[in-house]
Amino acid sequence: MAVVFMDVGQDVHIAGDLSEAVADGVRRAYREGYLRKSVVRDPLYDRTNTGDNTPPVLHVRIVPGDKVDIMVSPKGFGSENMSQIRMLVPADGEEGLVRFVTEAIEKAGPNPCPPVIVGVGIGGTMEMAAILAKRMTARSIDQPNPDPRYAALEARILEEINKSGVGPAVAGADRDDVFPLPDLAGHVVAVEFEPARQRLFR
């Protein structure tokens, strides 16, 4: 499945149907690149393969400027099926977050096709945490969070993963990224996995 993230500059004017243009690009890429086609027409009642991996999952952000940045992440469900989200409460704090992330990775074991990249999204709403976690898997491996508190949290989570005993491939997880969007009453945490064969295109 193709997951497409677009940052569209607010000064950009696009003629035509943006969603259809992205779908056409995905269609051509999967056909011309001989990539595996795995999207079905309906999630429950008509699981017939569309044959071209459309429609893609499309996330669009409006940003300042006059440019468009497109990132495509072909996604397999061996890793996607292992992703988790939990509605923690503020009282769970850092300890609850670390415990949940570590448990999610231990539970996933070898299923997400290790060695894996782990993205952690915190805060906002349920869907925002999940989107953040997915975006975090695309961040550069050697780019820690700019906030030293969250950089320390990333290091702690990585240490816990490496001590978990789930196997050397998973223990070698490349990164854990945390991005805060706090809400007074909530503490939503999402964990996203990217497999060893992750490919990102910009």
UniProtKB/TrEMBL annotation:
Q: Which UniProt keywords apply?
A: 4Fe-4S, Iron, Iron-sulfur, Lyase, Metal-binding
The residues covered by the Fe-S hydro-lyase tartrate dehydratase alpha-type catalytic domain are 1-170
A single GO molecular function term of this UniProt record: metal ion binding
Work out whether the entry's keyword set contains Lyase. Answer: yes
Residue spans making up a coiled coil are none
EC annotation?
A: 4.2.1.32
Keyword Phosphoprotein among UniProt keywords: no
One Pfam family of this chain: Fumerase
* Record family assignment: Belongs to the class-I fumarase family.
Q: What is this protein called?
A: L(+)-tartrate dehydratase subunit alpha
**Species of provenance:** bioreactor metagenome
